[in-house]
# Entry
Amino acid sequence: MYDTEVKSKKRKKSRGKRALKALGIILLVIVLVAAGTAVANFVTYKSEDNLAKSVAPVQYTTRLEPIVDDNGFNTFVTDGDFKVLQLTDIHIGAGWLGSKKDQKAINAVAAMVTAEKPDLVCVSGDIGYPIPFQSGTINNKTSATVFADLMEQLGVYWAPVFGNHDTEAYSCYTREDIGAIYASDKYPHCLFQAGPESAHGVGNYVINVKNTAGEITQSIFMIDSNDYVDKSLKSTIVWDYDCIHKDQVEWYENTLAELKEDNGGVMPKSIAFFHIPLAEMKDAWTEYCANDFEDTADVQYICGKAGEEKGVICSSERNEGFFDAVLNGGSTQGIFNGHDHLNNFSLYYKGIRMTYAMSVDYLAYFGISKIGSQRGCTPIIIHPDGSFECSNENYYQEKYQNENNAGEDVTMQEEINHVPAE
# Structure
């Protein structure tokens, strides 16, 4: 009896030791994998950052320099045309899984900015893509830093707004954290401003263009369209996208009143950049499709396609009145967004031009690195009278090609106007 109890205790003790040993091995493997991933991501980040810092600065014959006016607005002064280049959905992962694709994105941005020589680059969200199963990291600071270093090396003034992927629910850094990086003294070419704390979002601000007589010829609104409705992981997974909130609409209206006063009582013309399309973008496209792809009283098609499967337009289910404020304000003529990478159409809706920019993305959509009709940029020429013209330019044109990006193996897919699913 005694021997049996002793043997039983010895067996239990032995099993306990084996279990602890197995647990120790598992923990060691986890630590080694985590350490290996951290090292791989650091090496990847340094490699991409070195590439960003190695590009040649853009050569300008004459470059406009912004000043900060008495109201705190960054302001460019010119009596000629003012050129804005919109980029969107860069999707730099800055992790070991997407390194080669990140390098292509860096080369694409450098090539298009260098060829276009804009006075200002407006980036309408999703600079970063810290999605671990595609990029290999959740550290969203590295992608923001790589891009900011790239733009600083190019020597071009630029203004970003946040997209939904820049700061995911599980990302290491918040919008406030990334905004502080963009606004730091390290990046004097970045014109990002955090905006008022009284309004939702981080990065609601205005950049003005004035003539030498002091008149505002164009106000450029940069607006945070936020990310997910309740900021939760569940909201992220089901793509429950947020919108421009009512307090931001109030900020927009109050800012228009301030700009009008600053402009001698004359309401200036303006354009707006943000990431997530308005509900009215979906309304306009649905109306156009329902009319057999013919114009209606409210919708006038200009160019481009709805290339997302089933005509998906991923606007928010919420609508807190920004488009109505645009109609009532009598200032904003054009709205520019990103978000849906295969949509690149532009149309007028109730007199307001709404445009999907061309995307850069090589990483976020599976297989998108191998297709090319959607990849590019959107130059916008603002004239001295406040009017503007814009076009969506494909990246694979000869004017953007150089020794750093030559030879990409892509298919120029047939673009089809998809009808929205019911």
